[in-house]
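subagent[fold] <- orchestrator: predict structure for attached chain, return C-alpha cells only, no commentary.
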Amino acid sequence: MDYKFNTLFTEIGGAETIDKLVNAFYPKVYADKDLSPLFEGEMEEIMRKQRMFLSQFLGGPTLYSDEFGPPAMRHRHLPFEITPKRATGWLRCMKEAFKEIGLDEHPAGAVFYDRLTQVASIMVNSSDHE
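subagent[fold] -> orchestrator:
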C-alpha cells in the first residue's frame, strides 16, 4: 500500500521554496560582519549544501546524507566559533529571508522557523567576547 503524507518539505512548497530561501538568506549572511567570517569558501557550494540539508531536515529527499553521510551539524560546525550573538544573527538573517520570500506568512513557516531556532541554540559552542 502506498501511503502519502505531508512533511514540512512538501507543506512549504518543496525544493522551489528551499531554493528561494537559500538564495535570499546567504547574501544577508555574507553581508553581516559577525557572520561572514564563518562562511569561508565558495558561496555556491555552501548554498548547495544548505539546500541539501534543509530538504532532508524538513522531511524531503535525503540529499545531504546521500552525499556526505549523517548531517551531525553540531559536530561539523565545531571548528567554527559559534557564539550566542552569532546564533541570534543567523536567525535574524533567516527571519529576514523568510519574510522576503513570504514564508513568514505560510502556516508551516512558523513550525519550520521554530525548528531552526532549536538548531541555532544547539550549534552554540563558544561564549560571546564583549
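orchestrator: received. Logging for downstream: The two ends are 58 Å apart (CA to CA). The helical segments are 8-12, 14-31, 43-57, 63-68, 73-77, 84-101, 107-123.
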